[in-house]
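Checklist before submission:
- one chain only
- standard amino acids only
- sequence pasted in full

Submission:
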Amino acid sequence: MDTTRSPVLNIADVEPQPLPAAFAPKGGAAQRYGARMGFIGPRVGAQKLGYNLTAVPPGMRAFPFHNHRVNEEMFFVLEGSGEVRIGDRTWPLRAGDIVACPPGGPETAHQITNTGTGELRYLAVSTKQSPEVCDYPDSGKFGVLAEWSGPDGKPQAFRVVGRHGESVDYWEGE
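Returned file contents:
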């Protein structure tokens, strides 16, 4: 751990930024999805947990309805109001609420929507196990993501998004 970095960061000092290009909504999705994120984990030296401040405008969602097969997430609502859809149920959210999203199948799929009139802000905390597999029940997609450090120490990533049933044979093209 970098001992010159403070392990303490006040949430007021975290300014959410637009999502990285790989995660920014495109096309019609931009009408329903929109969020800014402030990445906290690297700033405090976190290694096995990811932390971010997510800010969602009224009427929007940060991410599609999804579940994690490997990682667990927790959300702590800081301000605003909204709702969280988990599996086939929906619950209202307000400041002070904590939401647990353990790994699993479609029954653990989750999505937070800002149903209020002001910005919805929440702290997201997750484990950072790699590789990760996510399902997107509404669209029938899956995603596989693996991250590691390259020989130069810089982060490397593999990411593929596809639809269930659309794959090639292992030996195709060999």
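Reviewer check: The radius of gyration is 17 Å.
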